[in-house]
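Is this the right way to post structure tokens for a design question? Let me know if I should format differently. Anyway, here goes:
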């Protein structure tokens, strides 16, 4: 059972839940003998005390946070370091972990993959960073093992930066926010609400952390119950969960759209740090005797069943039993949603063909990365596969351990032998399946994965070329159960397995022998090693007084993911070349976008050169004729008006923290986005840091692809923080007045937007 409270709650003595209703005051007096205010009790959360310890602001509601360390992988670190260099950085002021777990392994890019890695190693030497070589560990495994600590805060340029089960509040953001930390600046954010996640009971045998996580995600994603808030895990059920089990639940909190997470800590967490040679990192964390939560999710772990997230989102959840009982109906619903999501698809959905004799058969099983590849999960897989076979048919199974120390221990305790003997494949420590760079299924195949996401095309297919494959998320235990049944979808609870749960022994010497730790030992004489694909950011114009936007893409899906804005997978080969990477912007969702946006950019560049762009384009000239007919703008000159592209999407930005989703738009000429809401804080922040004005509208009916939008006095409106911004939509020869808003902006964010981007802002301060 997963229950959501429709009010805030007081938690008394960490056990008793008192809803914040008309009887709350009396109940609190009875329990405590005193009056307890909501404001006082809010200070009783673990989140409050950790945030306060890292907040440098005098305003209790406007946070300015400095983190203990930051971390990036090889999709993002080149851009971050290049941004910080361009803004005046001389050394890393805090520990910066650079991992290479998103190593694309693509031959198409020639040397550019390893060129990036050598750039990172040289940067770690020059600026004093920590360099984790390829295949040593995935980003979050390493940070759990070596950087987490109770009461700490870590910022990462990967959305799944979550170490709450280890007492660490971790936040996944775009690269711009990490660049600010490298420049000695702060992370600015309105104080978030805190939602209690009350765990009670003990999971059934065969129910794993992914089952628990998906059960929660399915309840809170669509209604935004925890959006941009902290998820604080409390309750007696935590004691019944091993630490790696907690880590597996915790890393998936990103898929709820929460801001961060934190858990109570106990002796099991103390043991975790002791095993990893860092006993000093442990501190007992508990909420105060009275703590207030803005809402509460009550989870009875004993009632959680093996769960599956069907394509094409982690929140599309069903119990496996439910799916097996109604396969036709559920797959029909998934197919119908898919047809709406893949507009003008060049393929026919054939997921229903996976139903044979009333049972669902899958083609591939994967256990990988920061969520699936934990020591405990792989050991459970080994116990299920022990003495069994995955078969010699089309079904395949692969396992990716999360780190080399975990890999070594799995070899020593025999787990790897059991897995390999069953016919499954052991892969390197690599995030590949999580972002479409490993084990891409064949066309029309169905893959079940203990990974973090199952967005459209996340697995590497290319719908624009007539390819489609389907990914569902499941727990490692049920994936292994399915494997020994020839790919027939099976819940692990249907098996009678003796789970061995062997003790973990961590061998740090593997890291000591291979990892370069330059923290506190910067060598400015080191030359950065640039490969031919590593390019500087192009010049970006500042925000003009007035702007004219051309709406070049109109996306009416309920949610637009960052994978749709900039696809992962093979595009990551060009991650360090802004111009080349930008060619892939919206390529799988709207293949015409880049060409149409660059056409706008070409006219803007004419304007920047001091010439009249309207003289070069008849359509634009006609638009300016209509604008000059608006009272007050009769003398408006096109050369004084910034001209950029824009897109409309209902709710863009769900998913990855990769700032390329925003920077690629900017590189091809975007000046703004228009939405009803932004799916995540991190995507909106990415837009701001790259000078893309994050407009909001309540009336999308006035918009259409090809429309022009004139926003007068936009620079003034941004600087003054105006709540209502007047705009004029030019469409079909008519002018329609409308109103945009931007939402809350910090003083620095307003300056960044008007400067044109974060780099311009910092350069201007020199």
């Amino acid at each position: 059972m997963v229950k959501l409270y429709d009010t805030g709650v007081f938690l008394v003595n960490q056990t008793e839940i008192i809803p914040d209703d008309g009887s709350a005051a009396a109940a609190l007096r009875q329990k405590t003998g005193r009056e307890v205010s909501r404001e006082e009790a809010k200070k009783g959360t673990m989140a409050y005390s950790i945030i306060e310890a890292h907040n440098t602001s005098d305003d209790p509601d406007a946070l300015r946070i400095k983190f203990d360390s930051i971390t990036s992988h090889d999709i993002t670190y080149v851009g971050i370091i290049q941004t910080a260099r361009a803004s005046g950085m001389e050394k890393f002021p805090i520990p910066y972990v650079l991992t290479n777990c998103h190593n694309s392994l693509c031959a198409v890019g020639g040397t550019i993959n390893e060129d990036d890695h050598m750039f990172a190693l040289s940067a770690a030497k020059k600026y004093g960073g920590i360099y984790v070589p390829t295949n040593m560990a995935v980003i979050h495994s390493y940070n759990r093992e070596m950087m987490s600590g109770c009461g700490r805060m870590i910022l990462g340029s990967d959305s799944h930066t979550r170490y709450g089960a280890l007492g660490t509040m971790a936040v996944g953001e775009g690269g711009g926010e990490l660049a600010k930390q490298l420049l000695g600046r702060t992370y600015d954010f309105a104080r978030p609400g805190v939602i209690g996640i009350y765990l009670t009971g003990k999971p059934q045998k065969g129910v794993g952390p992914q089952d628990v996580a998906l059960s929660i995600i399915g309840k809170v994603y669509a209604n935004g119950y925890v959006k941009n808030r902290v998820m604080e895990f409390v309750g007696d059920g935590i004691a019944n969960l091993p630490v790696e089990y907690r880590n597996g639940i915790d890393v998936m909190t990103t898929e709820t759209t929460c801001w961060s997470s934190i858990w109570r800590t106990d002796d099991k967490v103390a043991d975790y740090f002791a095993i990893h040679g860092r006993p000093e990192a442990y501190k007992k964390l508990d909420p105060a005797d009275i703590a207030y939560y803005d809402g509460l999710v009550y989870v009875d772990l004993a009632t959680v069943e093996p769960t599956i997230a069907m394509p094409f989102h982690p929140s599309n959840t069903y119990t496996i039993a439910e799916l097996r009982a109604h396969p036709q109906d559920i797959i029909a619903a998934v197919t119908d949603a898919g047809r709406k999501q893949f507009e003008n698809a060049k393929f026919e959905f054939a997921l229903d063909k996976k139903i044979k004799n009333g049972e669902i058969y899958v083609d591939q099983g994967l256990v990988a990365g920061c969520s699936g590849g934990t020591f405990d999960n792989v050991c459970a897989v080994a116990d299920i596969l022990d003495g069994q076979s995955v078969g010699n048919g089309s079904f395949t199974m692969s396992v990716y351990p999360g780190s080399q120390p975990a890999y070594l221990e799995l070899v020593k305790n025999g787990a790897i032998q059991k897995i390999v003997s069953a016919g499954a494949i052991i892969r390197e420590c690599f995030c590949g399946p999580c972002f479409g760079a490993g084990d891409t299924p064949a066309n029309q195949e169905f893959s079940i994965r203990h990974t973090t996401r199952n967005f459209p095309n996340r697995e590497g297919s290319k719908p624009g070329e007539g390819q489609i494959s389907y990914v569902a998320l499941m727990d490692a235990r049920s994936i292994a159960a399915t494997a020994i049944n020839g790919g027939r979808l099976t819940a692990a609870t249907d098996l009678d397995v003796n789970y061995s749960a062997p003790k973990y022994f961590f061998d740090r010497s593997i890291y000591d022998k291979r990892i370069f730790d330059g923290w506190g030992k910067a060598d400015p004489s080191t030359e950065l090693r640039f490969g031919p694909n590593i390019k500087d950011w192009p010049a970006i114009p500042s925000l003009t007084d007035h702007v004219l936007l051309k709406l070049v893409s109109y996306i009416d899906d309920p949610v637009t993911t960052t994978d749709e804005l900039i696809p992962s997978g093979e595009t990551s080969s060009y991650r360090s070349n802004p111009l080349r990477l930008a060619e892939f912007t919206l390529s799988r969702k709207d293949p015409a976008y880049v060409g149409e946006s660059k056409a706008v950019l070409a006219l803007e560049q004419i304007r920047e050169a001091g010439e009249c762009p309207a003289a070069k384009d008849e359509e634009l000239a006609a638009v300016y004729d209509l604008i000059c007919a608006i009272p007050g703008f009769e003398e408006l000159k096109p050369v004084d008006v910034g001209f950029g592209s824009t897109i409309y999407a209902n709710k863009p930005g769900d998913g990855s923290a990769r700032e390329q989703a925003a920077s690629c738009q900017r590189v091809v000429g975007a000046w703004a986005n228009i939405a009803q809401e932004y799916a995540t804080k991190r995507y909106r922040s990415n837009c701001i840091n790259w000078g893309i004005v994050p407009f909001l509208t309540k009336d999308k009916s006035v918009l259409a692809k090809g429309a022009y939008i004139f926003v007068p006095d936009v620079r003034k409106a941004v600087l003054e923080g105006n709540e209502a911004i007047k705009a004029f939509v030019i469409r079909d020869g008519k002018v329609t007045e409308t109103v945009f808003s931007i939402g809350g902006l910090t003083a620095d964010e307003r300056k960044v937007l008007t400067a044109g981007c974060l780099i311009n802002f910092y350069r201007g301060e020199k």
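Format looks fine. Someone answered above. Worth noting: The longest helix spans residues 112-127. The domain at 67-188 is CATH 3.30.499.10 (Aconitase; domain 3).
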